[in-house]
Amino acid sequence: MCHKCAISGFRAFSSFRCSPSSRSRAFLFAAAAQKRNISIPTTYKAAIVNNHGEQFKIIDREMPSPKKGEVLVKIHASGCCHTDVHAIDGDWPVKSKLPLTPGHEGAGEVVALGEGVSNVRVGDRVGMAWLYSACGECEHCVAGWETLCTKQQNCGYSVDGALQQYAIAAASHVVKIPDAVSYVQAAPVLCAGVTTYKGLKETEVKPGQFVSIIGAGGGLGHLAVQYARAMGMRVIAIDIGKKDYTDSLGAEISVDATDSSCVEKITKYTDGGSHGVLCLATSTPAFAMATNLARRRGTVVHVGLPPGTFPVPIFDVVLKRVSIRGSIVGTRTDLQEALDFAARGLVKVDVKTEPLANINSIFDRLRAGRINGRVAIIP
Ligand SMILES: [Zn+2]
Ligand SMILES: [Zn+2]
Fold first, then answer.
1. Model-level pTM greater than 0.85?
2. Distance of CA 34 from the midpoint of ligand 1 (Å)
3. pLDDT digits 0-9 by tens, 257-282
4. Domains in the chain, please, with CATH?
């Protein structure tokens, strides 16, 4: 089948039934695609690993046609996340598919629609996030907790992701990127941003209450501080040697984690501890500190995924009625909200761009913890 016919605006056109109103919509559609000059090549570049622990290869892939319920997205910016390192190294209990193209911070433009797609149009600016799809029917999906669906597919893990020039996405689970947010700014919001935003929601801290953010100066932390501030929380930023930076992001106070009286200082400042604690660091001392920083009835939220277990001071948990919970990315609604904060200029990502050809070097730096903020690949 000719790719150009199968997946250009013609597909968009034919996906509408021919009622008079939909016919005119379809004409507008095809015209819009033409106006945007969308031409789709027959092959494109993709980063893949064939086996866990191997380096990336850049290959030429044949352009796929989106199937029923799918869209083809031209990727304009694709963020690199630490989860992608675990995906290609194969060091998590559940292994990714192989060969694999990772990437779950894909920001791009819909260039073709599969059969039956009506929620997005050719030319729409969309994001592809970790939750590639969910069943929509299980108890978790029905309750608005699709991120816990046991039948979910994950972008760049169980299906190929966004570290390539074009990617197939489930139309139901792409999110619209507001016009006010550039592709490069949007990409990191799709994982780093929504993870911290949802984590903050999960602390249940109300406007005017204190939230302590451990690891506040990192790739996730710098976003957490801005979201928390925008959500009306009083931010206590904790990191090592990043006081000026976290102050500049909007923290009310910044405390160095190496200060032996760190917990004491924060407990005094907050008059009893933080209402919520968001732990973004993945070290054992950070986990212990998280529980110690919580106020009576406070909530500690963990989002990091290091291997193994973590110690919990049981007396603090019981006597102070501290809740400890995990939080994993966010739903489509959380994503839309997280992007909306960025659209209103309340959250700005510290992101640098690099070409796809640098991917092995970028991942070496990610593994070594030598990347500040976020790197987005322009494929
Ligand atoms: Zn991620
Ligand atoms: Zn489900």
1. yes
2. 34
3. 999 999 999 999 999 999 999 999 98
4. 3-176+349-378 (3.90.180.10), 192-326 (3.40.50.720)
